[in-house]
UniProtKB/TrEMBL annotation:
PANTHER family in the record: TRANSPORTER (PTHR42948)
Name of this protein: Transporter
Source organism per UniProt: Alistipes indistinctus YIT 12060
Membrane-spanning segments: 7-28, 40-64, 84-111, 145-163, 175-195, 215-237, 249-273, 301-329, 341-361, 381-401, 422-444
The UniProt record lists the keyword Transmembrane helix: yes
InterPro entries (UniProt xref): Na/ntran_symport, SNS_sf, YocR/YhdH-like
Primary localization class, coarse: membrane
Keywords assigned: Membrane, Symport, Transmembrane, Transmembrane helix, Transport
PROSITE patterns: NA_NEUROTRAN_SYMP_1 (PS00610), NA_NEUROTRAN_SYMP_3 (PS50267)
Length: 447
């Protein structure tokens, strides 16, 4: 077997995995999904689901990758040579490609907004004015197409250069800045008129709002935000050194990710209530609220630039990890050079992005089940494809893999890990599969 590169250091591992995990999912997706699903109640469910189901799944994916030291598909194939599980690998490759195609559209919005911030375009704009500018921009397909493709080309360039040179450097620099900036924004938001309302919307749980759809939304968001259910963490697991404590790694990463998401929510919802924006305004929520904040605060000009620049940068490392799944598969399985493999993967992504963009035009007939392609990709991946991928990986680890093998990998032969392993095993074999299947069944109306 070829020598695989592995992360340079422990901080390197946290930074790279963290780089994949912290991204648009926290800042763009989490706030609007929380807003649409009841705020505080959603957050509570989100935290519970992350701790109970998603951290164990992250551990499982790390283990599958580290054990086999290979790409998502080969990981399944090596452990189950008859090929019954190949589908799980293919599903991950398909899901990551689809996610990247709409992720790049959002990253393109971030780039556009960076440009608007640079020319001070948010200054004293009302939320209606910002919404109009945004809508007009999206309706004319060429601008968004330009920024989306520019972003994809940029990601391709990084992936061609290989793992540690390209990705690690970025992760280390960007994350701390993003967190600092968010904290600054939260402090500012707390001084707004609507701060109280915003905070209570986000933090006061209204239990009557919890139903199985909200739980599935929380599960899907947690999968998306933690980069689970599609092979990224299997692929990244293959770079984790043998002696790394994976319980600690998964815990650190998940807690960081959740904190960033909640910080984003705390920065955004006070503004939602202060500037009269609907908490359920969907995917454009962040792009309407924060420009409002920037346009009305002292120093908002520079902070706006910093924010959209960081948003763009944070989406780079996540996108790289998404592209890495298909690229690694193509180069390792089809024995193609990395450059060729990247080009094939990126070409597919660009084609799917174009579909998303065309379907966002107001007169577009590109609609499936009443949604445009962008919404379809965004919803279907989180609500179905990722949880299904996660379900397959826990079923595989819990029921197909030898218990001993799993234990050695998950615990890194550490004492601490061994104490937690029995709980982990019960979750992987029973709790996680049952919860996911029940949520699926209730979503399709069977129960
Ligand atoms: N977790 C990333 C985010 O929150 C998105 C992502 C999903 C990245 C799946 C890789 C795989 O933005
Ligand atoms: Na995330």
């Amino acid at each position: 077997m070829k020598q695989r590169s592995s992360f340079g250091s422990r901080f390197g591992a946290v930074a790279v995995v963290g780089g994949s995990v912290v991204g648009l999912g926290n800042i763009w997706r989490f706030p609007y999904i929380a807003g649409e699903n009841g705020g505080g109640a959603f957050i509570l469910v989100y935290i519970a689901i992350s701790a109970l189901i998603c951290i164990p799944i992250m551990l499982t994916e790390f283990s599958l990758g580290r054990h086999t030291r290979s790409n998502a598909l080969r990981a399944f194939r090596r452990l189950s040579p008859r090929g019954y599980w190949n589908g799980a690998g293919y599903l991950g490759i398909a899901t990551s490609t689809i996610i990247l195609s709409f992720y790049a559209v959002i990253a393109g919005w971030a780039l556009k907004f960076l440009q608007v911030a640079l020319v001070n375009g948010f200054h004293r704009q009302s939320s209606e004015e910002i919404r109009t500018v945004f809508q007009q921009y999206i309706d004319h397909g060429w601008g968004p197409m330009f920024w989306t493709f520019a972003f994809i080309a940029f990601i391709a360039f990084i992936v061609v250069r290989g793992v540690e040179k390209g990705i690690e450097k970025f992760g280390k620099i960007v994350m701390p800045f993003m967190i600092l900036l968010l904290i600054g924004l939260v402090i500012n938001s707390l001084t707004l008129d609507g701060a109280k309302e915003g905070i209570s919307f986000l933090l006061r749980p209204d239990f009557s709002k919890i139903n199985s759809h909200v739980i599935l939304q929380a599960l899907g968001q947690a999968f998306f935000s933690l980069s689970l259910g599609m092979g990224t963490m299997i692929t990244y697991g293959s770079y984790i050194p043998k002696n790394e404590n994976m319980f600690r790694l998964a815990g650190t990463v998940a807690v960081t990710d959740t904190c960033v998401a909640i910080l984003a929510g705390l920065a955004i919802f006070p503004a939602v209530f202060s500037y009269g924006i609907s908490p359920t305004s969907g995917p454009e929520l962040v792009f309407i609220t924060l420009p409002n904040v920037f346009g009305n605060m002292t120093g908002g000009y520079l902070l706006g630039i910093a924010f959209f620049f960081l948003l763009f940068t944070a989406s780079i490392s996540s996108s790289v990890s998404l592209l890495e799944v298909a690229t690694l598969y193509i180069s390792e399985e089809m024995h193609l050079r990395r450059r060729t493999a990247t080009l094939i993967a990126v070409g597919t992504v660009a084609g799917l992005s174009a579909l998303c963009l065309w379907s966002q035009a107001p007169d577009s007939s590109l609609r499936v089940a009443g949604q445009n392609i962008f919404d379809l990709f965004n919803n279907a991946t989180s609500l179905y494809m990722l949880p299904l991928g996660g379900l397959l990986s826990v079923l595989f680890a819990g029921w197909v893999l030898r218990g001993r093998t799993l234990q050695e990998e998950v615990t890194s032969r550490g004492r601490y890990g061994n104490a937690l392993f029995p709980y982990y095993r019960v979750i992987v074999r029973f709790v996680a599969p049952v919860v996911i299947v029940l949520l699926f069944l209730s979503q399709i109306g069977v129960i």
